[in-house]
TrEMBL record, chain A:
EC number: 2.5.1.18
Gene3D superfamilies from the UniProt entry: 1.20.1050.10, Glutaredoxin (3.40.30.10)
KW Cytoplasm (keyword) present: yes
Similarity-based family: Belongs to the GST superfamily. Phi family.
Protein name listed in UniProt: glutathione transferase
Source organism (scientific name): Capsella rubella
Cellular localization per UniProt: Cytoplasm, Cytosol
Primary location class: cytoplasm
Top-level taxon of origin: Eukaryota
The keyword Nucleotide-binding is assigned to this record: no
Automatic annotation (TrEMBL), chain B:
UniProt protein name: glutathione transferase
GO annotation, biological process: glutathione metabolic process; toxin catabolic process
PROSITE patterns named in the record: GST_CTER, GST_NTER
EC number: 2.5.1.18
Encoding gene (name): GSTF11
Location of this chain's protein in the cell: Cytoplasm, Cytosol
Origin species: Capsella rubella
Domain GST N-terminal positions: 1-82
Enzymatic reactions: RX + glutathione = an S-substituted glutathione + a halide anion + H(+)
Cytoplasm as UniProt keyword: yes
Length: 239, 215
């Protein structure tokens, strides 16, 4: 009868709309092939959260396009879009994911607020002391030849020195603790993965890690985690 | 137990923590670490802060360094006391974190070398890198335009309330504002100017300036 056809059509329309809404609700992470985004990507995979990716090619300067600047006004990556909600800054995204999905996967924030304090401490160390010299090495050694800008040898030398001093402190810390914030893996450890991967590979300075016994053991442990292996394989930058 | 703060009260990073304590009404004791004589690099302080920086805190057996991590810890521990610095929901908290991280990655990266070259080096009788400073000022202008746009439609960086996102900018911003042409760059931007006047009128900020001997 007509009314039963009509109700079947209405059911189908409802199902299609439900699927569309669900699709819009899937998390989207931008520029997954680039190191800063990989901090967020590895956290999503560790927590078993499904997500989609949107490619942004930094080597073509796509992060400077008006459409991208409309969602990240500093022209940096990544951005996470969760329905109507968006957030940028890789470590802020890591914290958001770790908090929102606290009850699934490893607890990357520690069990107490004191443990969380230690996680925040080492996450900030990564942001303020580890990342800047390593970023300088990455830009001057990996991307300068690819993108045709001159490498600054003085910056390379100073950056390696600075990074070495930081790694000496890490060596002492990791001789007392299995991971940076204690005996548990946390956001602080994960935050180091993407750019350290450059250090031991394309930058050609694996000795900085390997020559430090405890840093080396820590690196082996965190980089052989299933989540990081998945990131390295699925989102390898074709360079 | 009164928390011990090791640092110099005129330095930006200890001020970040002090401001958090003052906003939250948390009692503290300052132990002066003299930066002019490089006390922060001496063995005793290196036990507290292995990178030879300030601040560091000791709260009974609990120790922590990195000013932003310390501020976040106390803002969490005393969430229900004083100003709520971390937002009202998970989503709001993440936006607070986002702008606090922007301070670390995009603002401080420029503010720190500017202040180092124009304020600290002259005090120590060292030469200022004027070429670098001019480059940094141009970059700062670009960043300030983004903040201007943000603050044109938001009372504070993370929305309608004062949070850690605003607080974390204040100590370095105050030093930048003491530099004439940067002061002009800020005053020329209506919304940033409005925001700066409002947040520096807060009682906790005024108390901090008194503590630091600056008015």
């Amino acid at each position: 009868s007509f009314s039963s056809i009509k109700s079947r059509v209405l059911i189908i329309i409802k199902e299609v709309r439900k699927k569309e809404r669900k699709k819009k609700m899937v998390l989207k992470i931008y520029a997954p092939l680039f190191a800063s985004s990989k901090r967020a990507v590895v956290t999503l995979i560790e927590k078993g959260v499904s997500f989609e990716t949107v490619h942004v090619d930094l080597m073509k300067g796509e992060q400077r396009n008006p459409e991208y600047l409309a969602i990240q006004p500093f022209g940096k990556i990544p951005v996470l879009v969760d329905g109507d909600y968006k957030i940028f800054e890789s470590r802020a995204i890591m914290r958001y994911i770790a908090e929102k999905y606290r009850s699934q996967g490893p607890d990357l924030l520690g069990k107490t607020i004191e443990e969380r304090g230690q996680v925040e401490q080492w996450l900030d160390v990564e942001a303020t002391s580890y990342h800047p010299p390593l970023l300088a090495l990455t830009l001057n050694i990996v991307f300068a030849p690819l993108m045709g800008f001159p490498a600054d040898e003085k910056v390379i030398k100073e950056s390696e020195e600075k990074l070495g001093e930081v790694l000496d402190v890490y060596e002492a810390q990791l001789s007392k603790n299995e991971y940076l914030a204690g005996d548990f893996v946390s956001l602080a450890d994960l935050a180091h993965l993407p750019f350290t991967e450059y250090l031991v590979n394309q930058i050609g300075k694996a000795y900085m890690i390997k020559d430090r016994k405890h840093v080396s053991a820590w690196w082996d442990k965190i980089s052989s985690r299933a989540a990081w292996k998945e990131v390295s394989e699925k989102y390898a930058l074709p360079v | 137990m009164v928390v011990k703060l090791y640092g110099q009260v005129t330095a930006v990073c200890p001020q970040r923590v002090l401001l958090c304590f003052l906003e939250k009404g948390i009692e503290f004791e300052i132990f002066h670490i003299d930066l002019d004589t490089l006390e922060q690099k001496k063995p005793e302080h290196l036990l507290r802060q292995p990178f030879g920086q300030v601040p560091a805190i000791e709260d009974g057996d609990f120790k922590l360094f990195e000013s932003r991590a310390i501020a976040r810890y106390y803002a969490t521990k005393y969430a229900d006391q004083g100003t709520n610095l971390l937002g009202k929901s998970l989503e709001h908290r993440a936006i607070v974190d986002q702008w606090a991280d922007v301070e670390n990655q995009s603002f401080n990266a420029l503010a720190h070398p500017i202040v180092l070259n124009l304020i600290i080096k002259p005090k120590l009788g060292e030469k200022c890198d004027t070429v670098l400073v001019e480059e940094l000022k141009v970059k700062l202008g670009v960043v300030l335009d983004i903040y201007e746009n943000r603050l044109a439609s938001n009372r504070f960086l993370a929305g309608e309330e004062f949070t850690m996102a605003d607080l974390t900018h204040m100590p370095a911003m105050a030093y930048l504002m003491s530099i004439t042409d940067i002061n002009q760059m800020v005053k020329a931007r209506e919304s940033i100017n409005r925001w700066w006047e409002e947040i520096t009128a807060r009682p906790a900020w005024k108390k901090l300036m008194e503590l630091a001997g600056r008015h």
